[in-house]
Every structure is written in structure tokens, then in C-alpha cells.
């Protein structure tokens, strides 16, 4: 028997989007606002284009509306404040996108281990900054959202299949394609895809849909502001997808009835497809699809040099 699922539209709703100061998450925030959805933009700071969005949608007498909540997503108390600030301003929230992430910077990288020059992962820290941002923050934000929806502090109705809510995560093709250059990043995105699939039954039982997009090469500051990452892209062959293409896929994951909980939707240049749980063929390596960086193999020499560097991998 086919399970009934209530239709879901973002219009008239409120969304929390972390990492909304730039890139994919800013594009998603703008798309939501264009569909009459209030948005709480969350980040450490806003690029000028994100501040312009706040300025355009800050009028308390109009809807939709956008506010900025400055948040260090690696801090659990800060994440709690993010939800409290949203409820204080809007009364409730319906969509959460814990989208903030980083792509294996030197300051928290497998190839720059704790205690090595440039690493901010201290020897006695007991955790990696990259995993705090890319993995622990999405997990904790999802837990907090579920807690608020199941046991609302205000007079709002409890979440249920007839009163659905949404969580949309950002995974990556790195969850499918191993990349020696970025092991921590790949591990974090593999875990996000796994988390989403584990939480799939929540849509049927409680009305909470948890989905993810898995972007390929997306032209955002994460790439364009990092020459050390750009060198692995073949600029003559590799196509780029846009943040707007990913945002559209995210909206589909939130609204489309067919994209049920546990869906991971791959996104490339003019391309989307559902990633299978088992037997998936993997991303199409055609350069025109914008999914795979075709010079990534050149990073092996960089890794080899780092492994031979006693200052990086010597005894601690």
C-alpha cells in the first residue's frame, strides 16, 4: 500500500540555512525568499552579496523576511542559540539546512596532522575542526531541529505526517568517488549521506523528511577563492555547475513528493540524478557533466611530498 504524504510548499514557511554567507547556501536562501519563505541566514560573517539579501528582506512589515544570526556552527551552545533566535523572531521554523562546510583546508587536513605547521588541530584537542564543521554540526543541528519539532516550546503544532517538516543536507560526489587529496572531507560527506539514509523512516513515522544533495564541481568561493584547490580542475575541459542549480535541486528535495526521505540527489552541470543506496554506477566522468575534477590525480605528488616532510609527519 502506498503511504500518503502531505504536500509541502516552502511558501509561508521559515527556513534556517547555515553557511548562507556565500555560495550554495546563499543561493538556496535567495531561492526560498523568492518563493515567499522567511530565511534565517546563519554564518560567521556575510559577504556583500549576502548582506544585500538581508537589506532587501529586512522590513518587518513585509513577507517574506530575512535575518542574520551570527553563529559559530562548531559550537553546540551557538547552534542552540540559532534555534532560539529563530523562534523568538518567527515563532517557529519548518526547514533546516545545515549547509556550512569547508573543503579540507590546511588548518584542518588529514595531510597536515595535529601539531604540524599551519594546523589549527592541536595535539591535545581531541577533535578535528573540519569534522566539527562538516559533520558534527549537521548531526547536532538535525537533532536540535527534531527536538523542537517533536516537543515545541511554543503553541505550534507538533510535527506529524500531516504537519511535515524538512531537513536538507549537503553531501558531495566525494561520498562516492575516493579522493586522496581530501580524506577528511570525503569521510565527512560519506557520513552525511549515511546519516540521511539512516533517518529515511522518519518521514513516514513522524513527517520529518531528511534528504541531501551531492554536488560535483560548483563555482563557489570554496573553489574560486582557493588556488590550491583550483589547480586540480582542468579549466579547459571540466564544466562547472552553478550554486543556483544546486539550490533548485535542494528545493526539489524539500517539495517534491517523489523525493522521499533518504534521497541523495547528485547535482552537476545541467544534470541531476538520484544516487542509489546499493549498486550505484557512480558519477558520470564526462567533463561536460561538471562532476569530477580531471586533474585531481596530480595531488598525489603533493601528498607524497608532505609524507616525506619530517616537520609535518615527524614524531610528536
Automatic annotation (TrEMBL):
GO terms for cellular component: cytoplasm. The keyword Transport does not apply. InterPro entries: NAD(P)-bd_dom_sf, Sc_DH/Rdtase_CS, SDR_fam. Keywords: NADP, Oxidoreductase. One of its GO terms (molecular function) is oxidoreductase activity. It comes from the Eukaryota. Gene3D superfamilies: NAD(P)-binding Rossmann-like Domain. Belongs to the short-chain dehydrogenases/reductases (SDR) family. This is Short chain dehydrogenase. It comes from Pseudomassariella vexata. The lineage of its organism: Eukaryota, Fungi, Dikarya, Ascomycota, Pezizomycotina.
Amino acid at each position: 500500500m502506498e503511504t500518503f504524504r502531505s504536500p509541502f510548499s516552502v511558501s509561508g514557511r521559515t527556513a534556517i540555512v547555515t553557511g548562507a554567507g556565500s555560495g550554495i547556501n546563499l543561493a538556496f536562501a535567495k531561492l526560498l525568499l523568492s518563493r515567499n519563505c522567511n530565511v534565517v541566514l546563519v554564518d560567521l560573517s556575510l559577504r556583500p552579496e549576502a548582506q544585500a539579501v538581508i537589506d532587501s528582506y529586512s522590513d518587518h512589515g513585509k513577507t517574506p523576511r530575512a535575518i542574520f544570526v551570527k553563529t559559530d556552527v562548531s559550537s553546540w551552545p551557538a547552534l542552540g542559540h540559532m534555534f532560539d533566535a529563530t523562534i523568538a523572531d518567527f515563532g517557529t521554523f519548518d526547514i533546516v539546512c545545515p549547509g556550512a562546510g569547508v573543503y579540507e583546508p590546511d588548518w584542518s587536513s588529514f595531510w597536515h596532522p595535529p601539531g604540524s605547521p599551519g594546523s589549527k588541530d592541536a595535539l591535545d584537542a581531541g577533535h578535528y575542526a573540519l569534522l566539527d564543521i562538516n559533520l558534527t554540526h549537521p548531526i547536532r543541528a538535525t537533532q536540535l531541529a527534531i527536538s523542537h519539532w517533536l516537543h515545541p516550546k511554543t503553541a505550534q503544532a507538533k510535527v506529524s505526517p500531516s504537519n511535515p517538516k524538512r531537513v536538507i543536507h549537503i553531501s558531495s560526489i566525494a561520498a562516492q568517488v575516493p579522493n586522496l587529496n581530501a580524506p577528511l572531507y570525503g569521510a565527512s560527506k560519506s557520513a552525511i549521506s549515511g546519516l540521511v539514509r539512516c533517518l529515511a523512516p522518519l518521514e513516514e513515522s513522524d513527517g520529518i523528511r531528511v534528504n541531501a544533495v551531492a554536488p560535483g564541481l560548483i563555482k563557489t568561493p570554496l573553489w574560486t577563492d582557493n588556488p590550491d584547490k583550483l589547480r586540480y580542475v582542468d579549466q579547459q575541459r571540466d564544466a562547472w555547475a552553478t550554486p543556483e542549480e544546486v539550490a533548485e535541486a535542494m528545493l526539489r528535495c524539500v517539495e517534491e513528493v517523489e523525493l522521499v526521505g533518504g534521497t541523495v540527489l547528485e547535482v552537476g552541470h545541467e544534470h541531476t540524478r538520484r544516487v542509489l543506496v546499493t549498486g550505484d554506477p557512480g558519477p558520470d566522468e564526462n567533463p561536460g557533466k561538471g562532476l569530477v575534477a580531471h586533474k585531481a590525480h596530480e595531488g598525489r605528488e603533493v601528498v607524497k611530498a608532505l609524507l616525506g616532510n619530517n616537520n609535518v609527519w615527524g614524531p610528536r
